[in-house]
Amino acid sequence: MTKDIAVIKSHLIDRINYPATKNDIVAASAKISYIPPTEKQLFIDRVPNGTYKNADDVIRAADMA
Predict the structure, then answer these.
(1) Torsion on CA atoms 62, 53, 23, 42, rounded to nearest 10
(2) Most confident option among 2-6, 37-41, 55-59
(3) Do 55 and 16 contact (CB within 8 A), yes or no?
């Protein structure tokens, strides 16, 4: 998942409007067609329910820093 983390982080920064809920992030992540579904699911499973002010909040909450 290491290579894919950079892609997911970029997606979080560039493609999601904040504030965003976990549901918003899940919906946006579904649009990342170039990351294997299993990798996306690992990421989604790491994001706790909540509302996030920015991509850094998501990255910290998912322990991807």
Answers:
(1) -20
(2) 55-59
(3) yes
